[in-house]
Amino acid sequence: MLELRLVQGSLLKKVLEAIKDLVNDANFDCSSTGFSLQAMDSSHVALVALLLRSEGFEHYRCDRNISMGMNLNNMSKMLKCAGNDDIITIKADDGSDTVTFMFESPTQDKIADFEMKLMDIDSEHLGIPEAEYHAIVRMPSSEFARICKDLSSIGDTVVISVSKEGVKFSTRGDIGTANIVCRQNTTVDKPEEATVIEMNEPVSLTFALRYMNSFTKATPLSSSVTISLSNELPVVVEYKIAEMGYIRFYLAPKIEEDEDETKPQV
Amino acid sequence: MLELRLVQGSLLKKVLEAIKDLVNDANFDCSSTGFSLQAMDSSHVALVALLLRSEGFEHYRCDRNISMGMNLNNMSKMLKCAGNDDIITIKADDGSDTVTFMFESPTQDKIADFEMKLMDIDSEHLGIPEAEYHAIVRMPSSEFARICKDLSSIGDTVVISVSKEGVKFSTRGDIGTANIVCRQNTTVDKPEEATVIEMNEPVSLTFALRYMNSFTKATPLSSSVTISLSNELPVVVEYKIAEMGYIRFYLAPKIEEDEDETKPQV
Amino acid sequence: MLELRLVQGSLLKKVLEAIKDLVNDANFDCSSTGFSLQAMDSSHVALVALLLRSEGFEHYRCDRNISMGMNLNNMSKMLKCAGNDDIITIKADDGSDTVTFMFESPTQDKIADFEMKLMDIDSEHLGIPEAEYHAIVRMPSSEFARICKDLSSIGDTVVISVSKEGVKFSTRGDIGTANIVCRQNTTVDKPEEATVIEMNEPVSLTFALRYMNSFTKATPLSSSVTISLSNELPVVVEYKIAEMGYIRFYLAPKIEEDEDETKPQV
User: Fold this and answer.
1) What are phi and psi of C42, to 5 degrees?
2) ipTM of the complex
3) Nearest residue on chain B to A97, alpha-carbon basis
4) How far apart are alpha carbons A117 and A257 in whole angstroms?
5) Where are the alpha helices (DSSP H) in B80-205?
6) How close, in Å, is residue A77 to chain B by CA atoms?
7) Closest CA relative to residue C237, chosen from C158, C127, C125, C183
8) Which residues of A150-176 are buried (b: 16+ CB within 10 A; e: fewer)?
9) Which residue, C158, C130, C138, C249, is CA-closest to C199?
């Protein structure tokens, strides 16, 4: 039996909005430690990893490890029916082929039960090794989202270059070129407005903007984003979920020589 | 000669927004007691009845009973040109084939006259007998609108079931099922936030969500909605218009046996 | 070498939004006195003239007169990447075939350079003679925009008639007719809310609403608009740009006799 009660139900709504356009179907894995998901995007280029730790739930009961295959689009349709202040409880009986989302309004005057069919999804869980990164940039998530959106109006790829002074985002397209430099800045009123750069080695890597823009759908989950970069490793774009866990997106850099081949089909 | 001056002109704008998607052409009936309309929707499944009593107008002159056929879409186009704070006057000369809508800005600096051609529309006025209802639910109109919209993302029909404890809205579709229960609740700060259930007999009736959603376009007219239900009678969904009258929507329940036949063409 | 630094960069963003739908490609002319543009719309019916005087820039360096051909749609794409509080600098080297737009955030933490290719555009600069107008109407720009939009839902052309008492905007279409009268009104709290009419002779002229609506895209630039009318002269619709200059739109009136021929292709 599974019963996970999340007082701040809007978090789960935001998680779904963050990943549903990237991933169609995925297994949610439940264990005593938390509620998690790992999935490739539908074109098998990007990887998303979600963790919501059990401590973040008001009530967390998971009698045995269980993996529940869900269509994220359908799950999102149901979660959209929850109010932003609703408490959300995820429930499943052992051996059942359905999951139930229960939404309670803050006043308890309105109680909704949405029951969704589960799916069998083949998936292998990739071990993601801990890695040393050449550079780690933390910046306001809204700023990062704005930059990805702006550059998309000019080109298809972004070059992210980190030096001690700042991080540079560059693109080029038919109508011209664009370079945006954000400087390290730690003397801000609110810590989440800081731009902090930890750098061991300068890096300069190229990524498809289409995926970066998709990752920024997680912006409502966190006021800052952390971008970890190393040559020849996938970039990690991480949004922390306060007191509960994170969403991490992994994307391999584009190699200059065969840029056309690796170009994602839009 | 007809001259009806409505200080709160935005009411008339909202009335048109509430019915124009349901009804294409309709006769507005003017008499000494008020300005009214009764019309079937274009697929002859739902009925809408509007009443604006003469006392609600600042000035109300109607020398003789008159029935004016209007295209509601064109009338809505004209009323959209009125400001939300404008005074609206409806004018028609005896025997004229046009009606004039006059909009006066609150400062009287801007005066607009919109003249619209009238139409000949055949219509029979249905007598709607007063009926006893098994259950009457009054609830916040925005809550009802939210529930109809939410359930539409899961299924095509809604089962409304009333018991002493509350009212339940249920649907089922390809992706699963949904049940939303609203409990009776009269201990609220504002009377319009109450959910009040008067029940003589339990009822459970099925309706097309498409029509329910259409009715909720009247939500801006009133903060509460009253739903009157009886087995084998059309449901009445009523929005009161403060100090003037009402909009009422009538819809026959779907019979389980021939559900497919009565399914509306979407 | 050209270097124009505009502290209130949002002005340039609004200028582009005002003209980019009317004009595809145009030469921006730079001289020691200012930054200007004159262009016909793509169907050669309307003329737009822009002036931003050098005094309005924080820094203005223009070593020699230069004419830079730009695709306004591409330029708009780049300027949309500037924040509303950003300082915008326009830079070009002598003989270069590119122009650079630099955006500096108020805190100087984010600096962006957008480089756009220039185009060769044939254009002749029309001398626009100073003219005496029969009537000049100054009114709130938002009111004028609202009227043009409202009348477009009824008809294709607007008749603008000026008398001492006020200005009347009229149209007619398949569904009926509309007349909107704005009265002279100078006793307002804020001068920009005034409607002021200077009239030597009554005028009544007909214009295509499609163009009028296009001109009102300049509404965010100024709280009032000035409409100058004379029989057999193009109307001038002017939006002043505070302390810098103006955007003026010129449009020939439609002649009644050959109305169908001069009707713009929509």
Assistant:
1) -65, -25
2) 0.90
3) B176
4) 45
5) 141-152
6) 7
7) C158
8) bbbbbbbbbbbbbeeebbbbbbbbebb
9) C138
3-state secondary structure of C152: helix
Q: What tokens were used for C167?
A: 């200005």
Reading the block at residue C22, the tokens are 């009317």
Residues in chain C closer than 8 A to B108 (CB atoms): 183
Query: Cα C110 to the chain's mean position, in Å?
Result: 31
Nearest chain B CA: its distance from A170 CA (Å): 41
Contact of C6 with C79, CB cutoff 8 Å: no
Q: What DSSP string describes A45-88?
A: SEEEEEEEEGGGSSEEEESS-EEEEEEHHHHHHHHTTS-TT-EE
* Partners of residue B49 on adjacent β-strands: B38, B248
Which tokens go with C50? 């822009």
**Angle at the Cα of B75 (from B70 to B77), degrees rounded to 5?**
150
Residue of B nearest to C185 (CA): B109
Residue type at position A163: S
Spatial distance between the Cα atoms of C253 and C234, rounded to a whole number of angstroms: 6
pLDDT at A194: 93
Q: Give 3-state DSSP helix, strand, coil % of chain C, rounded to 5.
A: 20, 45, 35
Q: Do C183 and B78 touch (CB under 8 A)?
A: no
Comparing alpha-carbon positions, the chain B residue that sits nearest to A72 is B175
- The mean pLDDT of B214-242, rounded to a whole number, is 96
CB-closest option in A154, A177, A185 to C109: A185
User: Domains along chain A?
Assistant: 2-117 (3.70.10.10), 135-251 (3.70.10.10)
User: Would you mind telling me the total number of residues written for chain B in this entry?
Assistant: 266
- Partners of C107 on chain A (C-beta within 8 Å) are 185
Evaluate whether A155 touches A178 at the Cβ level (below 8 Å). yes
What token pair was written down for A186?
């730690």
Look at B115 and C178 and tell me if their CB atoms are within 8 Å. Answer: yes
Structure tokens at A249: 């997106």
Give A165-215 as a DSSP string: SEEEEEEEETTEEEEEEEE-B---SSGGG-BEEEESS-EEEEEEHHHHHHH
CB C60 within 8 A of CB C40: no
Quick one: pLDDT at residue A256? 65
Q: Which among A166, A129, A132, A130 is positioned nearest to A147, based on CA atoms?
A: A166
Q: Tokens at residue A155, please?
A: 């080109």
Choose the closest CB to C110 out of A154, A177, A180.
A180
Residues of C within an 8 Å Cβ radius of B? 143, 150-151, 153-154, 175-183, 185, 195
Model confidence pLDDT, tens digit, residues C102-111: 999 999 999 9
Calculate ∠ Cα C140-C226-C10, nearest 5°: 70
Chains in touch with B (3+ beta-carbon pairs under 8 Å) read: A, C
Distances (CA, A) of B234 to B51, B255, C72: 19, 12, 58
C61 burial (CB, 10 Å; 0-12 / 13-18 / 19+) is middle
Which residues from B are below 8 Å from A77, CB to CB? Answer: 153-154, 175
Backbone angles phi, psi at C22, to 5 degrees: -90, -40
Comparing C126 with B171, the larger pLDDT belongs to: B171
Q: Which tokens go with B93?
A: 């000369």
At C163-173, the pLDDT tens digits run 988 999 999 99
Contact criterion met (CB < 8 Å) for B175 and A113: no
Please give the average per-residue pLDDT across C164-191, as a whole number. Answer: 92
Taking contacts as CB-CB distances below 8 angstroms, the residues of chain C near B107 are: 185
